[in-house]
Amino acid sequence: MKKVSIIGGGIIGLCTAYYLAKEGYQVVVFDKSDLSDGCSYGNAGMIVPSHIIPLAQPGMIAQGMKWMFDSQSPFYVKPRLSSDLIKWGIQFYKHANLKHVENSMLALRNLSLLSKELYRDFALENNSFFYKEKGLLMLYKTDKVAEEISHEAKYAEHLGLEVDYLSRAEVAKLETGTKTDVIGAVHYKSDAHLYPQKFMQFIKEELTRLNVQVLPNILVQDFTLNNNIISEIITDKGTFSTDEVVLAAGSWSPEIAKKLNVKLSILPGKGYSFTLKDQEKKPAIPAILCEGKVAVTPMNTDIRFGGTMEITHTNDTQINAKRLQGIVNSINEFYPDLKVNRPVEKDTWYGFRPCTPSGMPIIARDKKIKNLVLATGHAMMGLSLAPATGKIITEIISGKPTSVNTNMFQG
Ligand SMILES: Cc1cc2nc3c(=O)[nH]c(=O)nc-3n(C[C@H](O)[C@H](O)[C@H](O)COP(=O)(O)OP(=O)(O)OC[C@H]3O[C@@H](n4cnc5c(N)ncnc54)[C@H](O)[C@@H]3O)c2cc1C
After folding, report:
1. Which helix (H) or strand (E) segment is 390 a member of?
2. 378 backbone φψ class: left, alpha, beta (φ>0; ψ -120 to 50)
3. Spelled out in words, what is the top-level CATH class assigned to the domain 3-409?
4. Bridge partners, residue 193, by sequence
5. How far is the CA of 37 from the centre of ligand 1 (A)?
6. Is the distance from the beta carbon of residue 397 to the nearest atom of ligand 1 less than 6 Å?
7. How far apart are the CA of 252 and the centre of ligand 1, in A?
8. Which of 71, 77, 76, 42 is nearest to 323 (CA)?
9. Which of 42, 79, 264, 290 is the most exposed place for a label (fewest CB within 10 A)?
10. 244-247/372-376 β-pairing
């Protein structure tokens, strides 16, 4: 059976390894880290078929410019003289239009719904990762945001997703975990959530069972290439032969692709999260606090709060205290009884979302390198879309028709 090498053991790489191994491939995963942390671990754990509108959308440029000058804002582009950033910015601008949004919505919905089905299958096997289907509350405090969120929800409804429009009193009736101070909410009933660290543990155990070699602490550095076919992967621990290669290295994908002369426009969107352990009082339903763009997820006995999107570079490991304070302020304004304090730096997690300028993931065979398949650029939806991505990559490598149409995921 063919040997498939996967570069990157985040959620995309590991889910891909799972479906390839199930199909009978000999699978090896390389990761430069010890596979205990990273973007796939500290995220908000939301599975969001409701998120059918990509980041690149009309109004985002104007809103983004306003946020650039607010030190506590949830979105920020770190200004620097970089050709990658300039090219990314131009592409983002080109995609921020209604036509692109309309083309993207159905593709994202289909990919998300497939993923949710696959998560359900995993949970039926062993729900050690606290998968729950409670939907997602889009909580808001102002009429302006109410209008925007309801407008977006109409698109979702039009695509067959179940949506409830809730008044302040209806929110209070549904959210029984803690008090909310909002004027209303949209409840996306299609959405689900899980505990990311526990899911990563679950999938690693599945891979062990399937005899997948998951190799931590190995840095992929280069390739041996003959006639546009990769024959070897060169790492800091030696050279490995291969038949097929899946590039699933998240925000680091462009620097690896460069070794093959493949251009990928992906920049890291840094986000923060912190987790309060063993909380008696906590929201019962995951929520986005819309004005602050903060994600709130109950995870078993814990609560996780996440937010901010700073378009930056992968060496930027600083925690921005003002933006973290912005997250904390939103939580206390929306949930007055929680009384959350800003966490100290060591309790604050950050991760790099791999963001394409179109807001769409890349799930495709490379056009030039014949045995290279790309599984990257999932931005704020990598957890949500991981099982479906893994399944589709397996179908691409097997030469089978894909479960969903992948025209919008070609990069
Ligand atoms: C605050 C926050 C909240 C989020 N909330 C959600 C959410 O609720 N729902 C959702 O769907 N998504 C969410 N996301 C996004 C999600 O976490 C990411 O989309 C997802 O984790 C990306 O997974 P990945 O496997 O592509 O990348 P990663 O998890 O970054 O994995 C890439 C791996 O490649 C490895 N690697 C890199 N270079 C090399 C090399 N040269 N050699 C070997 N290995 C290499 C890295 O070590 C890393 O382990 C959130 C993100 C953040 C930051």
Report:
1. helix 382-398
2. alpha
3. alpha beta
4. 46, 132
5. 9
6. no
7. 10
8. 71
9. 79
10. parallel
